[in-house]
UniProtKB/TrEMBL annotation:
<feature type="active site" description="Proton acceptor">
    <location>
        <position position="20"/>
    </location>
</feature>
<protein>
    <recommendedName>
        <fullName>Peptidyl-tRNA hydrolase</fullName>
        <ecNumber>3.1.1.29</ecNumber>
    </recommendedName>
</protein>
<keyword id="KW-0694">RNA-binding</keyword>
<feature type="site" description="Stabilizes the basic form of H active site to accept a proton">
    <location>
        <position position="93"/>
    </location>
</feature>
<feature type="compositionally biased region" description="Low complexity">
    <location>
        <begin position="203"/>
        <end position="217"/>
    </location>
</feature>
<feature type="binding site">
    <location>
        <position position="15"/>
    </location>
    <ligand>
        <name>tRNA</name>
    </ligand>
</feature>
<feature type="binding site">
    <location>
        <position position="68"/>
    </location>
    <ligand>
        <name>tRNA</name>
    </ligand>
</feature>
<feature type="site" description="Discriminates between blocked and unblocked aminoacyl-tRNA">
    <location>
        <position position="10"/>
    </location>
</feature>
<keyword id="KW-0820">tRNA-binding</keyword>
<comment type="subunit">
    <text>Monomer.</text>
</comment>
<comment type="function">
    <text>Catalyzes the release of premature peptidyl moieties from peptidyl-tRNA molecules trapped in stalled 50S ribosomal subunits, and thus maintains levels of free tRNAs and 50S ribosomes.</text>
</comment>
<dbReference type="GO" id="GO:0004045">
    <property type="term" value="F:peptidyl-tRNA hydrolase activity"/>
</dbReference>
<dbReference type="GO" id="GO:0000049">
    <property type="term" value="F:tRNA binding"/>
</dbReference>
<feature type="region of interest" description="Disordered">
    <location>
        <begin position="181"/>
        <end position="228"/>
    </location>
</feature>
<feature type="compositionally biased region" description="Pro residues">
    <location>
        <begin position="218"/>
        <end position="228"/>
    </location>
</feature>
<feature type="compositionally biased region" description="Basic residues">
    <location>
        <begin position="184"/>
        <end position="197"/>
    </location>
</feature>
<comment type="function">
    <text>Hydrolyzes ribosome-free peptidyl-tRNAs (with 1 or more amino acids incorporated), which drop off the ribosome during protein synthesis, or as a result of ribosome stalling.</text>
</comment>
Length: 228
C-alpha cells in the first residue's frame, strides 16, 4: 500500500501554472477532495498533510526545495516515519505522454527528470511508484526546458486537468494496496471528444419549389354567386 503521496513541482507563483508543476496540481486536487490543508513543515522542506483512509494513515507532500532537490524532502519524511520506497508514490509531469494520458509504474530510470534523479539518490533506489502525468513533448530536445517551464494553452490545460480528475480516483485504492484496481483507473483512456455534427446540405431552390408545388392543397373553385 502507498503511505506517502508526493507531487513534484517548483514553489512560487511564477511556476504555479507551468507544466512542470503537474505533480503539485495532483496533490492539491487530492487535498481539496479530502478537505485537507497542506501546511509548511520545515523539518521536511515541504508542505504536508496527513490523511486517514479507512484506518490507514497516509501523507501528502509537496517538496518546497525546487525540482532538482525534491529527494531531500522525500527522503527526510520517509526516514522519519519509516516508510519504505515501495510505499511511496511520486506524481510528476511526463514528456513522453500526451496531455490527458497517465501511467502508473514501479521502478525504472529517471529518464532525465531532475526531480526523479534526486529522489533516486536520496532513497538509494529506483523502486518506488510513479504516477506519470502526460504534458506532451515540444518535438525537439533543445526546447524541453522552456516547454516544462512554460504554461500550457487552455486546450492542453483542460486535458491535463481532466486527467488529474480521473486519476485521483485511484488515490483510495493505492492507499489500501489495491494496486491492480488503481492501475485500471489510471490507464483508462481519456474520453475522446465527439466529432462535430456535419450540417445537412440545403436542398436546391428548384427542388424546394417543386416540393412545395407537389405538396400544396388544391384550392376549390369559388362559388358562382349567380348560380341558382
Amino acid at each position: 500500500m502507498i503511505k506517502l503521496f508526493v507531487g513534484l513541482g517548483n514553489p512560487g507563483p511564477e511556476y504555479e501554472l507551468t507544466r512542470h508543476n503537474a505533480g503539485f496540481w495532483w496533490i492539491d486536487n487530492v487535498a481539496e477532495a479530502l478537505g485537507l490543508t497542506l501546511r509548511d513543515e520545515r523539518a521536511y522542506s515541504g508542505e504536508l498533510a496527513r490523511a486517514n483512509v479507512n484506518g490507514h494513515t497516509v501523507w501528502l507532500l509537496k517538496p518546497q526545495t525546487f525540482m532538482n532537490l525534491s529527494g531531500k524532502s522525500i527522503g527526510a519524511l520517509a526516514r522519519f516515519y519509516k516508510i519504505a520506497p515501495e510505499e511511496i508514490l511520486v506524481v510528476h509531469d511526463e514528456l513522453d505522454l500526451d496531455p490527458g494520458h497517465a501511467k502508473l509504474k514501479l521502478g525504472g530510470s529517471h529518464a532525465g527528470h531532475n526531480g526523479l534523479r534526486d529522489t533516486h539518490q536520496h532513497l538509494g533506489t529506483d523502486q518506488y511508484w510513479r504516477l506519470r502525468i502526460g504534458i506532451g513533448h515540444p518535438g525537439h530536445r533543445s526546447e524541453v526546458v522552456s516547454w516544462v517551464l512554460g504554461k500550457p494553452p487552455q486546450a492542453q490545460r483542460d486535458a491535463i486537468s481532466d486527467c488529474i480528475t480521473r486519476t485521483i480516483r485511484a488515490f483510495e485504492p493505492l492507499a489500501e494496496g489495491e494496486l491492480e484496481k488503481a492501475t485500471r483507473i489510471v490507464h483508462k483512456n481519456p474520453a475522446k471528444p465527439k466529432p462535430p455534427k456535419t450540417p445537412k446540405a440545403p436542398k436546391p431552390v428548384a427542388a424546394e419549389a417543386d416540393d412545395a408545388a407537389s405538396s400544396a392543397t388544391p384550392t376549390p373553385p369559388a362559388a358562382d354567386p349567380t348560380a341558382a
